[in-house]
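Record format v2
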Amino acid sequence: MAPAPTLASADRRIEILKSAAAAFRRRGYHGASVDEIASALEMTKGNLYYYFRNKEEILYACHEYSLDVLLALLDDVRADASTPDQKLRRLILAFVHLLLDELQATALTIDLQALSPPLLRKIIARRDAFDRGLREIIQQGMDAGTFAPGNPKMVAFAVMGAVNWITKWYDPAGPLTSEAIGQAFADYLVGGLTRMPGEPAPPLPPPAR
Amino acid sequence: MAPAPTLASADRRIEILKSAAAAFRRRGYHGASVDEIASALEMTKGNLYYYFRNKEEILYACHEYSLDVLLALLDDVRADASTPDQKLRRLILAFVHLLLDELQATALTIDLQALSPPLLRKIIARRDAFDRGLREIIQQGMDAGTFAPGNPKMVAFAVMGAVNWITKWYDPAGPLTSEAIGQAFADYLVGGLTRMPGEPAPPLPPPAR
DNA sequence: CACAGCGTTGAACGAGCGTTCAACGCTGTG
DNA sequence: CACAGCGTTGAACGCTCGTTCAACGCTGTG
């Protein structure tokens, strides 16, 4: 309602990225039109080309931005001196929060393959860095015996899949808060499902309904 | 190499679906062209319209086919009289197998939203049926105390996410067989990650590398 | 008041793609 | 040999969408 005060150019770029991320999530990269991205911001599509060279650059910037956020998170988690299971738990909680509340539920889900090879390589390199960090935490847990032995790569893929998939069913208007989802996922993905007879349940907040 | 013997019409339809599913997975629905789907089968795009009314109908048929396969699996698993954890394990193993070896790694991953509302509703109804079946198994495990208490809906989402995400990183030419992936995922998603001190590890095949 | 430049507009272009369709060959039948 | 019909072709159409660009208003400066 308030007549938007003129935005600095950098802010405008971020506005565009958010609109684009939302459109890409709903329709996919090829399905979302440049006009659609612009209209959501009440600007013309021609104007977008003042801020970005082309549609691909917008997609690239979306991924770049998401990775900035996620790699910063990873660094944070690595730095704190806690046990692997605490680290993993914190990582999942924060990932879900960032994904749903800051990244328009888009992060790593949108068509990477739509990028041309040079840009694609850059993004993949950074995504791999994130993967490695995640695997490292899992490996540490296995080495320490906190986690069951297994293939850390596969566990990492499973965790990433579970979390990224949230964007497919999450409804911001629905009853589930990003907080509650994060808790439930951290509980399950770190604590596990099966309870051996007589095993004490790990500390839980009042059982989520 | 062998000059393909003339295929019956129904077989030809399935060939098309497989090619389409592969193309959709790589490029997304809007990114994949009708011509691309046809060329992979060495036919012209015009010819596709002898078998399907339009591109959307191809997408619809892909989902329909996937759901046929998956709902049949669900029925199978429900019918067998075993414990919830065994059922869940079997479901995951078979799901991964079907997904990677039969469904061109495509199942539920491709842009549902690209379907027009009437078709979309039909697919969503069947997908929900699958979800309900999965949740039911999880609920039974929780009721029986085999599984930790929690929200079965969230656990089901996490499992589906982990499994469907496989299509994003699986490489048929890579070292991992669909079998190995299924085992690792079933181990993790059913057995869990965390080991309490002194807890016996659940039976595992020789620790996967 | 003149000027400069940033941000914006809206029309236009051109390519790509989904879809249509008239025509064609091949196969089996009478 | 004539005919029918299935499966196929390839060209053409029309629409959508990404991209370009000349022109315009608004704001602040000298």
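Residues 33-35, 45-46, 49, 54-55 of chain B lie near DNA strand C (CB under 10 Å from a C1').
Chain B is about 65% helix and 0% strand.
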